[in-house]
Amino acid sequence: MGRRGFTLIELLVTIMLVAVALVGVMGGLRALGQAELKARKADLLQRLAAQKMEEIGVVIDPRSGENGGDFSEQGYPDITWTMDVQPGTEADVDEVTVTATQGADSQSLTGLVFIRPVTGSAQP
C-alpha cells in the first residue's frame, strides 16, 4: 500500500522554515521603515539648512549676525542651527557652514557668501 500525505515531522519542518522566512521578511521591512524615516529626517534638516544659507548674505551679515538659533518660526522648535564663518581666499568672500541639528542627527551645508562692502552714507 502506498503512502499518501505528509508525516508530522515533515509538517513541522515546513512550518519551521516558513516561520524563519517570515521573521526575515519582517526584519527587512522594519529596516526599510527605519531607513525611510532617517532619509526623511535628513531631507528636512538639509532643506532647513539650505533655507538658512539663503538668508545669510541677503538678510544676515555672517560676520556680525547670530551664530545659531532654532527653526521655531518654521514650526520646528526642536531643530537648531549653527553657523561657522571662515575667511575666504578672496576679499569680501567668506566660507560659511550652516548645520541643522535634531537630536543626534545633523546636516551641514557649506558655501561662499559675498560680504557687501560698507560704503559711505546715502546722499539726501
Task: Please describe what this structure looks like.
The chain is α+β, with helices and mostly antiparallel strands and 124 residues long. It has one domain. Helix content is 39%, strand content 29%. The chain has a four-stranded antiparallel β-sheet with strand order 1-2-3-4. Strand 3 and strand 4 form a beta hairpin. It is rod-shaped.
- Overall radius of gyration: 28 Å
Compressed to H and E, one letter per element, the order equals: HEEEE
Number of domains: 1
Number of strands: 4
Tally the helices.
Answer: 1
Concise synopsis of the structure shown:
By secondary structure, this protein is α+β, with helices and mostly antiparallel strands. The protein is 39% helix and 29% strand.
Furnish the topology, listing elements before pairings.
Layout: H1 8-55, E1 68-71, E2 76-87, E3 93-102, E4 105-114
Task: Please name the defining characteristics of this protein.
alpha+beta; four-stranded antiparallel beta sheet
